[in-house]
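Structural prep section.
Before we set up the soaks we want a predicted structure of the protein with iron/sulfur cluster in place, mainly to decide which crystallisation condition to try first. Input record follows.
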Amino acid sequence: MDSAAVQAHDASGHDQAGRAGEFNLVSANPKSVLTGAHFMDGDHAACEGALAAGANFAAGYPITPSTEVVERFAARAPLVGATFLQMEDELASSIAILGAAWGGAKSFTVTSGPGFSLMMEHIGLAAMTETPCVFVNVQRGGPSTGLPTLPGQGDMMQARWGSHGDYEIIALSPNSPQECFDLMIEAFNLSERFRTPVMFMMDESVGHMTEKVVIPPADQIKIFPRRFTALPPNEYLPFDANGDGVPEMVKAGDGYRIHVTGLTHDERGYPALNWRSQQKLVSRLVGKIRGHADEITHCNEYLMEDAEVVLIAYGITSRVALAAVQKARQEGIRAGLLRPVVVWPFPEKRIRELASKAKAFVVVEMNLGQMVNEVERCAAGTKTVLIPHAGGNVHAPEEILQVIREVTQ
Amino acid sequence: MSVSPAINPVEPFLRTERMPHIWCPGCGIGTTVNCFSRALVDSKLPLDKVAVVSGIGCTGRVAGYVKLDSFHTTHGRAIPFATGLKLANPSLNVVVYSGDGDLIAIGGNHFIHAARRNVDIKVICVNNFIYGMTGGQVAPTTPLGATATTSPYGCFEAPFNLPFLAESSGAVYVARWTAYHVRHIAHSMVEAFKKKGFAFIEILAPCPTLYQRRNKLGDGLETMRYYKQHSVIKNGASTRELKLDLKGEITVGKFVDIERPTLQDAMDQRYREVLKESYCGRGGA
Ligand code: SF4
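Run finished without errors. Recording the tokens verbatim:
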């Protein structure tokens, strides 16, 4: 399995921090960047990614298999000017990071399935109040307590719509420790760019596998800074989204005397409990993600130029799928892999394009069918086959290869 | 009362464009907000550095009416939000302003842990003995025998003694007043603002629409009369012994005023001790 090769074929063709085009990116703070080649697992790499991204506040509650992320952060925080607090539960962790964000910090929390369920309340509040922050979920088998020490990918739809009400979210899915580092920076950048909570959907395998992780010098890491307003308090409307649907922010204590509420609100941030305000606000919250899907989505493609059979897989599963694709090629089958790196918003456009060329889509995921429904929706009739797995262990490449053979017959 | 609105001392602290407020006539919450405004004047806190955090409920709406940085969060979670806010921005004076159901039932776990950690936040709890916003349901503060919509035959669960809970969890400042004790409330708030650490003020307040009416306790005015006649000020009283029930004596006063390191101080001190010059301080990354 060659994850470096997967990364080399970045279909979006541009480096992630550079996507934001017209915005001024800044270099990472060298104090927080552990430049060099390391041998570390995905959990530790995610922590280093967060630090490099400028995270200076984390709150968490212990839960397997994610705890190493905050253990490392707890050790590193006082050395780099950051704050860590272990809270009494995930409800507290997930809102402490919102308080910290409004205090001016870049913040994140880390959990796994059962804790993720508890955090749904504040993923909704973060979406509604447009609070930039990152939620890391190192997925394990579920439902409920499930398989605490073994992998799963069963929280993908929960990451998208697990909190009540209507909203859109951004979610990323790394497939290696190196990506846990790299994509964490992208996660923070996207959360600042769009003022939205970003879900960082790891899995136990990626979290606990140890590989080489190269951390570049700070000046090569590009950070999207918070979009603080330049307007004076008397001209500033906290939720007036001028232009691209994303309002500029302030922090508490700067004299703006803002009001921030989870109630439906108007541009002033004041409660406005009527259908017109609801329509306007929720449409904008959803629209700022959907309307920028081309800027946000990000896929890696491997051997796709002439592919008849398109495998779709994300996270750890994409590495097994790649092994199967390579074996299929040896047999002369024109198989390729499309790997959503940003899983939400879904790379709808790309799948639709492929649907006109491919013979079949084969979706490999460690659940009994979540992302496959999205693929099927965009496949417009092109044959779509799911290779499910309830979790606890990755797929066997042979099992995937067998399905590839079958769909080409 | 003949106070002209122009010189109403509260007005500069309110988002007047949001008036009229949602509270019922005779409700005690507005009275506590008056006291809060008075305390802000008296304490001379820089208003740009005061942030109010509320949860959900009738009192939870306070954050929406004060002309300060204000956060109306989720049900029960004002305290952990405030914890993050304060740690990220230590120059803020963070006040949590919420009701008994919000802070003590659904938010009870956060309440005891913030007190234990001695987070430097001020918690003002308006106790109206029921859930007001949702129509008068039984709360962990409802006195034995009192009726509520979900305890139609009278409450049979023992209520929390909030000052005792706060003190035993680690609060460094604990007081209880009723909405009748406006000067005492304002004075306690000033003291709490000056105090470093987790300060807790319980304010018993009439909810004439639900609690008083259902329990035939009269209107707001009558409740004030009851508060006046039945409250006994016992500063320094043992919180374990405080009286409060449906119709009897109410112990009010300041019960706890002690010093111990705040979460932030303890954190800094520990890091400095162990890490020496490698400790970077906080808020820098
Ligand atoms: S329901 Fe009770 S607590 Fe709520 S506003 Fe009315 S009187 Fe006040």
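Observations: Residues 177-194 of chain A form the longest helix (18 residues).
Flagged for discussion at group meeting.
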